[in-house]
């Protein structure tokens, strides 16, 4: 809000320029001489003056704010994602309006509708049930970017995804190359787009690398507890696998806890791998082989794609980020492999 008693006219009078020039200088427009801009900014700062946000929106029809709608906010993955989005936003002088929908379609719709008229574009992640843009009743002119989501309604919407399918295929191929033949997979939460793609990649990779091998799939929920349960289930099986691929690093950690308690050695008895390359992966013992996703860079790239659309740059369709295989001690070759 403006400082009481100080208006844009006061800044213009003291700077000996027009109100329009003050407005252009404060909004970073290029058609203002550097000396004039410096004088206007110095006077505005001395008066503690800032343009009224609502008035600026009415005059420019832009909010200089980007909306971000995520499944969950108090989560390490989404915290890293938001750091990347925020860094890219600050580079462009933009603010963020952030909301979480807690995997609830109704709350997701409310969050999207609540951003109408308040943002210049929206980045939305909806990996659990897809996204119905028509139900959200967003203006057709509002740029929307789907982030790691199942699909969209309405067409013409850009998307940015991690190649979870390709990453999982690469991991199964790596384990097979290391001499592992009975490869179990701890799946992620359902319904979830990332989890489904990682499971599909595991199945396809198994068929390609080990023809005739039966998929060995255990339920998981992307957390340590579900990884531990899956590990205990494997330990109770008539025959142990010789490799376990978990759909994320947290489940791999839980599985490792179960193996350690049963004195099953990794990687001597069973190789272990994860997905995401979370900060703990390289500090586990043994260090975890995993698939690296630059989550912060992923978020920054998402915002830049959204802004490209907002200014009319042509980059339609889906864009993907390729995970990087990080080979560490937990998948050392099997004896004779």
From TrEMBL:
Q: Coiled-coil annotation: which residues?
A: none
A Pfam family annotated for this UniProt entry: Peripla_BP_3
List, for all copies, the residue spans of the domain called HTH lacI-type: 6-60
Per UniProt, the keywords (alphabetical) are: DNA-binding, Repressor, Transcription, Transcription regulation
Key word Transcription regulation present: yes
Q: Which Gene3D superfamilies match?
A: 3.40.50.2300, lambda repressor-like DNA-binding domains
InterPro entries, per database record: HTH_LacI, LacI/GalR-like_sensor, Lambda_DNA-bd_dom_sf, Peripla_BP_I
What name appears for this protein in its UniProt entry? LacI family transcriptional regulator
């Amino acid at each position: 809000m403006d400082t009481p008693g100080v208006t844009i006219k006061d800044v213009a009078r003291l700077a000996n320029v027009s109100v329009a020039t003050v407005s252009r200088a404060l909004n970073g427009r290029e058609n203002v001489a550097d000396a004039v801009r410096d004088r206007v900014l110095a006077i505005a700062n001395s008066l503690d003056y800032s343009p009224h946000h609502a008035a600026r929106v009415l005059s420019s029809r832009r909010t200089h704010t980007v909306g971000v709608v995520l499944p969950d906010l108090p989560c390490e993955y989404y915290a890293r994602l938001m750091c990347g989005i925020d860094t890219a936003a600050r580079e462009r002088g933009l603010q963020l309006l952030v909301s979480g929908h807690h995997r609830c379609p109704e709350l997701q719709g409310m969050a999207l509708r609540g951003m109408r008229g308040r943002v210049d574009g929206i980045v939305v992640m909806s990996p659990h049930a897809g996204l119905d843009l028509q139900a959200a009743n967003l203006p057709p002119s509002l740029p929307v970017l789907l982030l790691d989501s199942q699909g969209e309604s309405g067409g013409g919407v850009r998307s940015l995804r991690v190649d979870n399918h390709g990453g999982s295929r690469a991991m199964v191929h790596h384990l097979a190359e290391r001499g592992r033949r009975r490869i179990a997979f701890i799946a992620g939460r359902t319904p979830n787009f990332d989890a489904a793609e990682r499971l599909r990649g595991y199945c396809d990779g198994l068929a390609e690398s080990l023809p005739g091998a039966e998929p060995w799939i255990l339920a998981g929920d992307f957390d340590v507890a579900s990884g531990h349960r899956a590990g205990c289930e494997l330990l109770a099986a008539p025959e142990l696998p010789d490799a376990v691929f978990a759909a994320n690093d947290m489940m791999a950690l839980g599985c490792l806890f179960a193996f350690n308690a049963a004195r099953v050695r990794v990687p001597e008895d069973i190789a272990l791998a994860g997905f995401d390359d979370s900060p703990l992966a390289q500090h586990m013992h043994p260090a975890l082989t995993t698939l690296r996703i630059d989550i912060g860079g992923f978020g920054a790239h998402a915002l830049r794609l959204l802004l490209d659309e907002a200014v009319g740059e042509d980059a339609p369709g889906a864009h993907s980020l390729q995970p990087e295989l990080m080979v560490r001690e937990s998948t050392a070759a099997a004896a004779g492999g």
